[in-house]
Amino acid sequence: MSGDGSQYVSQQILGAGLVIAIDGPSGAGKSTIARLSAAELGTRFLDTGAMYRALTWYALQQGTDLNDPAALAMLAASISLQVEDVPHAPRVLINGRDVTALLRSEQVTSMVSRVSAVPGVREQMIARQRQLIKAAQESGRGIVAEGRDITTVVAPDADVKILLTASEQVRQQRRQGQLGVGTDAVSARDLADSQVNNFTTPAPGVELLDSSDLSEEETLEAVVAIVGRVFKARHA
Question: Burial, 165: exposed, middle or buried (Cβ in 10 Å; 0-12, 13-18, 19+)?
Fold first, then answer.
């Protein structure tokens, strides 16, 4: 993108420590759009789903029983997890090891909803996520954080809150392109994740952005435009 619009908005929000929250269902493209938005706006970037994926990968490596909530919560509390929130090269490290490339495997994808649904796990991960968001906010750099419950649970007081969605058919196509998984994967993730979060209806103060008929570039432009409009309205 890097057009006049994004440059103008990035200059306007410079030093404001803006928190931009983007939620959405599987396959909506929120990870890519959030990362690109952070790069365009000059903020930090937080993929909260990658944190749950990292814990899931680690649990599988450790042989932790994924049907044992107490064991998973204990693992979430003790894991040495480092998130590098640089949008151009975000990384997740466990015990100093870069595991970023391992987090999109079919095994992790099929198990992550089970792990992330555990209340004790969510409590630990949300606390870590809030620390990262607070640090970016206080630094003046700001952050774009994406996930399933950022606008409602993790950062309900975010400056900009967006629910990014798309039709199930479009999301299935996108997910297949990303992971090469079957067309039932999106429906399965929706069903599993809906037990914890309502990511289909925007909460009060959350802007709905349907990207079904938008390209990646157009979706990015729409997000930047929303950020600019909300920031301008608040500082008018």
Answer: buried
